Amino acid sequence: MKNKSLVSINDFTKEEQLRVLEAAREFEANPVQTILKDHVIASLFFEPSTRTRLSFESAISRLGGKIVGFSEASNTSVKKGESLRDTILTIANYSDLIVMRNPIEGSARFASEISPVPIINAGDGSNQHPTQTLLDLYSILQTQDTLDNLHVAFVGDLKYGRTVHSLVIALCNYNTTFHLVSPVELKLPSSVKMHIKEKNLAYHQYTSMEEVIPNTDILYMTRIQKERFSDPLEFERIKNSYNLHKDMLVDTKENFKILHPMPRVNEIHINVDEDPRAYYFQQALNGVYVRQALLSILLGYR
Amino acid sequence: MNDKVKELKVSAIENGTVIDHIPAGAVFQVIKMLKLDVFDQMVLFGTNLESKKYGYKGIIKVSNKFFKPEELNKIALVAPHASIIEIRDFRVAQKTLVEIPETVSGIVKCFNPNCITNIEVITTRFTVLEKEDIRLKCHYCEKITVKNNMVFK
Question: What is the DSSP string of A207-272?
Fold first, then answer.
């Protein structure tokens, strides 16, 4: 896997994904290892992102690597009209690996084809965000001790949620049973369902989440955005029906955990945060271990 | 109207290629794709001709030109049922059908305005997901371009 790029979660086979998760466990046990002390990593964020950028930069720092880059494109040569091709070819001269977020879809694939150094896609518009998927898989593995044969419920915006699409597709390798909870307008698109059907896995669709809670191992919550609705009244009508409160968690399995890719608004009440079944802040921390693992593998240290 | 009479509406050629059963609306697109608009030999074409199979069709006859299969398969996106007839000495030497390729490169634009191929100078690449009701998956943005929003470069 040395020098490979990660653009889309499907670029890695199941075995390669598991190798990253295994290495992430090692970094969770021992997070400070200065194996990248002789490396420079470029962190190119053409649009702002807090969580992803800081967790990448934290991962690089804990590995002893140096970071060059920018956190928004406004004061770079991109603003002067430089092409992505030229930006990548130039910055590849200054670094051993490039982490890139770019609002243009397909930009990461293109960069990976022209760059002499590996590219990690940290989000290309509405297309792919594979490190989020890896950290979601890692969080499921850490809380369930397995990825196989689980019941996973996805709640909220399943239509536009990029993280949902990639995670559903990745979980199709693990005999998952899917519970899909969303308003009718935000159902999982058929292009994603196609993957579930191809593997002959079971999926169930719901419009309310109460009935899925007792039967699932993982409850993956997402934010519903007002602008996704053509009818604002419809949004007002449903917005509170996908909010999770502590009193809804009376009857759950023992291993039940709540995940959320964050940021959250009001879909998980803060009274859930202290519950041991809430795992979303740990999930965000897992992002650092998974990114440490990925950087180490792509640079040939694992 | 039988086939023979129809053929006569566009005169026969001595040597070359006849592309038949082109959808009536696609004749000019096929001419463009095969660069026949800048070809220096005789090119005859007809469109909105009656066809028993398709209602209306178009036909193109190109003198002294024999295409490679990969050149012709490009036109399958606009003329999926086209037949290719090689003419030698006024006689049919070979007749084949076009085939939609597994991948399409450079002919079609990605419908997604936010795709990198519509922003930088990049040759588009697609995987053909479905051949009958054409669905093309962009190699870059991974979005699917369908027949209705297909634009040719």
Answer: S-STTTGGG-SEEEE-PPPGGG-SSHHHHHHHGGGG-B-GGG-SS--TT-EEE--S--SSSB-GGG
Fold of A131-284: Rossmann fold (3.40.50)
CA distance B145 to chain A (A): 13
List A53, A62, A87, A101, catalytic entry: A101
Asked if B139 and A8 come within 8 Å (Cβ–Cβ), the reply is: no
According to the CATH classification, is domain A9-128+287-298 in 3.40.47.10? no
Domain hosting B120: range is 103-152
Query: Chain A contact for B133, CB < 8 A?
Result: no
Tens of pLDDT, residues B39-81: 999 999 999 998 887 889 999 999 999 999 888 888 999 899 9
- pLDDT digits 0-9 by tens, A117-129: 999 999 999 899 9
pTM: 0.89
Residue B8: the pLDDT is 65
ipTM above 0.85, yes or no: yes
